[in-house]
Amino acid sequence: MENHDSFVLHGNIIYTPDKNKFISLKDGWMVVEKGKIISVSAEKPASAAGLPIKDCKGKLIMPGFADLHLHAPQFIQIGMGMDYKLLDWLDGYTFKEEPKFADPDYARQIYPIFVDEMTACGTTASAIFATIHKESTDILCDILAQKGVRAYVGKVNMDTNSAPALTEETAKSLQDTEAFIEKWQNHPLVRPIITPRFVPSVTADMMTGLGKLAEKYQVPVQSHLSENPGEIQLVKELFPQDKYYMSVYDRFGLFGQTPTLMAHCIHLSAEEIAIMAGKNVYAVHCPASNLNLTSGLMPLRKLLDAGVKVVMGSDIGGGHTLYMPHEIVRAIEISKIRSIEHPEEKALRLSEAFYLATKAGGEFFGQTGSLETGYSADFLITDVPDFQQGRTVEEQLQYFIYHGTAQDIREVYVNGLSVKN
Predict the structure, then answer these.
(1) In contact, 418 and 119? CB cutoff 8 Å
(2) pTM attached to this predicted model
(3) Could you give the CA distance from residue 147 to residue 126 in angstroms, rounded to a whole number?
(4) Number of C-alpha atoms within 13 angstroms, CB side, residue 268?
(5) Are 244 and 272 in contact (CB under 8 A)?
(6) Where does residue 132 fall: left (phi above 0), alpha (psi -120 to 50 degrees), or beta otherwise?
(7) 321 CB contacts (<8 Å, ≥6 apart)?
(8) 3-state secondary structure of 45
(9) Which residues of the chain have pLDDT under 70?
(10) Residues 416 and 37: beta-carbon distance below 8 Å
């Protein structure tokens, strides 16, 4: 079964076609052919004839999770420096750890552990920051490709206001970035994404060059936006001519001109939120990181109500876990805290949070993140305890999201192929 991408699954199936509802089937049937979902039905379909059947009776079958913001090199610093705020934390830890990836052998040591843990946690699609080092970034891509998981990976760009070991020469950085794009742009699963670290660490010349590369190759963009008040103030000082933080990215062609992910988006005015919605820029909600670094409580409901596309991210190492169900729960809890002080901001429901972590994030990669006909067969099979077997499928999912662990995820599939060790 593990090496065959056409089969039939029989078990408890659940997914969110939209953010307002779950579709669930107890003892349902899902047909997968050549890595695509052909049908999901209550009865065994005729199209299942001749295909091997995978018996998952009593187990949950759900879409894989999409983690749209994480820093692979920070895997080694998870949980460290959590008493700091963002800029001090970067100086105290991140800018000391990331230079180690100048050594390709170090990347070969760390990145396989990171990728194995990410997939074991049920993440089947991700948008990843690597480091400024092209060779180590290639190594990360090779590992992801060999594993068979879906990812956008960015060679990070930094040419100012950074530690000396992480400050690039602008022209060389752009040259390395273009070579990286050309190498990976046609891979079926692992693709390049333009990745200026954030406005304070890139010059106008760097952003000009990155905008041109995004346009030339039609490559998506990822970065950070309005995470921390100190960071926002620094951007104002560096680019006083721009009205908003996001205006800097926009001016250089890095804000919706191609598909764009902006992490955090905590401290935004109503006008900025409207601009994001108008440009179809994705806001990546990173609940654990926002709490750990005392960045703030993202006004998620405001963004959703304004029509902003919101997805979820673990943001390790600001976040401290790759297990996305914990981020789903934190997103709900943060929305409840905000609703106490802001009654007009209705708290997030589980169907909404699950949708953000599956189909909404999967949309960035195409048709993935759901179990609908025509979607890529990116899914998880999870255990359900004996004492929960009498529950509805939706209740079983609730139990898994709030109380389950990565050990409950028995199998992980991308394009109908097993990717969990």
Answers:
(1) no
(2) 0.96
(3) 13
(4) 28
(5) yes
(6) alpha
(7) 78, 121, 288, 314, 327
(8) coil
(9) 1-3, 421
(10) no
